[in-house]
Amino acid sequence: MMKTNKLILALSSIMILAACSSRKESSTTGWEYNNSKNGGYETNERFIEQVTGPGLMFVEGGSFTMGRVEQDVMYEWDNIPRRQTVSSFYMDETEVRNIDYLEYLFWVNRVYGGSYPEVYKKTLPDTLVWRDKLGYNEPFVKQYLRHPAFKNYPVVGVSWQQATDYCAWRTDRVNERILIDNGILQEDMEQMDDNVFTTQSYLQGQYEGIVRRNPRNLTNENYGSGEKSRIIKMEDGLLLPSYRLPTEAEWEFAALGYVGNTQEENTDERKLYPWNGSSLRNGSKNNQGEIMANFKRGRGDNMGVAGSLNDNADITSPVRSYWPNDYGLYNMAGNVAEWVMDVYRPIIEQTTTADHRSFRGNVYLTQKTDEDGFIEEVDSLGRVQMVPVDVQGNAYRRNYKKADNINYLNGDVESQMGIDWNNLLDETAQKDTASVAIDKWNSKYGTGNLSKYKDDAPEGNSNEMYAYGESSLITDRTRVFKGGSWKDRAYWLNPGTRRFLDQDQSTDAIGFRCAMDRVGAPVSREKNNQRRGVDYNKKRK
After folding, report:
1. CA distance linking residue 240 with residue 337, whole number of Å
2. Which of 211, 445, 475, 517 is the most exposed place for a label (fewest CB within 10 A)?
3. Cα–Cα distance measured from residue 117 to residue 122, given in angstroms and rounded to the nearest whole number
4. What's the mean pLDDT when you consider all of the chain?
5. Candidate CATH numbers 3.40.50.10860, 3.40.50.1580, 3.90.1580.10, 1.10.10.10; the one for domain 48-182+238-346+480-531
6. In a 3-state reduction of DSSP, which class is residue 83?
7. What was the pLDDT predicted at 140?
8. What is the number of alpha carbons within 13 Å of residue 160 lying toward its C-beta?
9. Which residues, other chains included, contact 290 with Cβ-Cβ below 8 Å and sequence gap of 6+?
10. pLDDT tens-digit readout, 189-235
11. How many whole angstroms separate alpha carbon 181 and alpha carbon 10?
């Protein structure tokens, strides 16, 4: 077995290195690719398609009706049906488990715990979310996260911000592993503080690591720089895109799983849940009558009657306890609700959303540079420093003006027709903000320190926004979560439902799973890529 693994790694390494040596003439200029004598322009002619990262499933995109598709009994009207197109992407097969998050905690504590213990503390889930003033839940407080009996249960008590940080960490660890398994880097267990691998710092040449064998540098060989090798570049196609939270549109599309309900460009059966039919019980012969998801049937009924438990779970359940949908995704209804990327706004209709890759929450960033225009060194945690794009740099753009586009077309004064944007934007300010008071209550009726209630208030106690009667519960820090949980009735199992919570808050019923962009064609050429993950170091045919 060991010999086989070594052979696979050797073959994958040779393939990566040989990709740069394959020669082909440019159809545009006639110059030969990958030839140092011609200047050394390199291109990977052997690249087939993006492989599936660890834990992910391929989700073939398409068009669908997003939002409520049946009677809105709660009369919320915050997810009006609209036609959307979702690009193909990848999503975690299951929710992120306790064992997955414990691996993250272990790494952060090992790397930053000595010098920056506050970094480790910020990553810890809030286990106190289990407490109930009239319930005995202390065993969950002490044991749910760390006891091995719960290792395959979904992690809870994680805020939106913590989930986002986990996705960034996972990106870096997966790409570092890819470079190690392909013979580019050696394992470095001495990484600490600012000497830490991140994908971005590596691509920018700000992390060297312990180099094992880099590809030949065809360009520099011809010009006598003495550098015979180079680091892996994005153009090599070896590194994976970033893990991230799914958008609301992606999550809802993946949950519905219409891929199993289409014939000749038509959807033959509309879904209320991730499975077919309007019943919450399995209709198949072998599993007839069994509950399809982990949810609450009624007050005081979390799992049924002893001897015949209906869903075998009083709280959460192991992540593969129920049947997957047609994309192979588990628990897209029930168990835990899940964070998505979007900032919450109640105004959702066709005119206030994009019909392709819909998302609210864009804040455009760029790499921080010094006075001479050079990229700044990584920060004390080894991360590339990012700053919002400024107004001056976007002076002649028509597609956007500001870095922060969260409030675009959300019904406030900035969204009104006929607004003179040149007068609203403070072109000389360092912050990319409008000189118009967006929070009408604060500007007209407020007293004292009005800024604490503004949507763009600095980091601090986000609970201040819960001052009922003084400010709205909805701010630029309010994020969407989707899907029902073990604490919810069947109404919330419909993928079209949506709720919101501040990005720094957490509960015992909200977890998350990661997603990843699909690069290239929306349809996979690899059969195995359709339903199962492909090893990144597997020899491609």
Report:
1. 27
2. 445
3. 9
4. 82
5. 3.90.1580.10
6. strand
7. 96
8. 23
9. 281, 282
10. 999 999 999 999 999 999 988 999 988 888 866 555 567 888 999 99
11. 9
